């Protein structure tokens, strides 16, 4: 009896101390859009069937953050049950429309993730999307690289931004967020 009581207390303490994901209300940034990419194809996030979208701004010549973040998303995918793996898609938006064509961006993101789409929009549309998502983008002085924010914007089935994942978050945290949003409880 004493051992059973100790086990119940231990489980209660561990459960209570576990950090819980609280997504709260949708954030006032990001969300759906409908624009033609550089190839002329209309892109609207509402057209995707997956209940969770991970939107990420980057570019194919990025030396560090973009490859690392896409690799982290792939690792997060390995932490998901098989049925949940199909519940999200990564949307990679190039912030370098001068050097990144639509086909190059798609091949780049597919190298890391099967369930992904990569887009390059004309410069004026890219600027609108960067503003809509409150992303940070600045060309370096030498023009060879672009400083940019590394958040992953997590959108729910209504295409509202629910949370920003940071580059310092673990792959497990990414996976937990995807699991939570892909469930019917949200």
TrEMBL record:
It comes from Leptospira ognonensis. CDD domains: SCO. Residues 21-183 form the Thioredoxin domain. Cu cation binds at residues 62, 66, 148. GO terms for molecular function: metal ion binding. Transmembrane segments: none annotated. InterPro entries: SCO1/SenC (IPR003782), Thioredoxin-like_sf (IPR036249), Thioredoxin_domain (IPR013766). PROSITE patterns: THIOREDOXIN_2. This is SCO family protein. Disulfide bonds join 62-66. Belongs to the SCO1/2 family. Keywords: Copper, Disulfide bond, Metal-binding. The keyword Disulfide bond applies. The lineage of its organism: Bacteria, Pseudomonadati, Spirochaetota, Spirochaetia, Leptospirales.
